[in-house]
What we know:
Layout lengths: L2 H9 L3 H36 L6 H6 L14 H33 L2 H16 L2 H19 L8 H25 L3 H9 L4 H12 L1 H17 L2 H6 L17 H8 L9 H31 L5
Amino acid sequence: MNASARDMWRSRPRYGERVLQGLxxxxxxxxxxxxxxxxxIMLSESVAFFRxxxxxxxxxxxxxxxxxxxxxxHFGIVVLASATLLITMIALAxxxxxxxxxxxFLSEYASERVRRVVKPFLEILAGVPTVVYGxxxxxxxxxxxxxxxxVIATFNSLSAGLVMGIMLIPMVASLSEDAIxxxxxxxxxxxxxxxxxxxxxxxxxxxxxxxxxxxxxFILAMSRAIGETMIVTIAAGQxxxxxxxxxxxxxxxxxxxxxxxLGDTPHGSLxxxxxxxxxxxxxxxxxxxxxxxxxxxxRYRERYE
Length: 305
């Protein structure tokens, strides 16, 4: 093909590419509009909730009781938030070290044969429905814990947090392994040339170089734990109380949303509007975590040429 024919070929209109570009643009625009639509609905209903005379913004953040479905109504979101954070911390205490150690093992120590065996098991663990995890916590983990902790209740934070941590392990392991694998091999070889051990290479070179990706996986796991619904609804109970005792039933923000969404609450009522107030609080939590993750990755990301 001569130069003129090649130029003519390049100048031809490529309608397929334009159609794909238009579809990609519409998809991105739709996701933005959906996000703004969700935020607008939650904001408008939350404003209507706080405009009610029996609701105080100060009490919403400081009251130590949450009883909007009772005759004596209290609206202390700290009760639901504390239960959510308690279960999240238990889950992260399980998922973060286990997932990170799994990622290090798969990336730095495991042979190709072992990696081919372990990887599918992690993927299967990630594909288990959360409702199955919830009943697993209620019917297996809680009775097992009762053998060692007789005072533990049937519904409790500990079993829900432990099983949620198991659910988060594949996410942390997969994302952390991707970050560790992206570290150039030349950095490892340079460290080995200095005579250091493999453990020192992993802890002193590889992990610091992949820190931004690892922290991003941690924050993503935390966001996932805060927004988890079925495990806490089934295993943690629906008893709103302000406590740090992991052996008693509690109610998280997502569990309360499930309770109100069962269909017995009249539309437009005070109880109905509490759903959006709790949802807005949950949205702010996860949105703040995502913003922090984005900032941290951009701030501490290592660039290799």
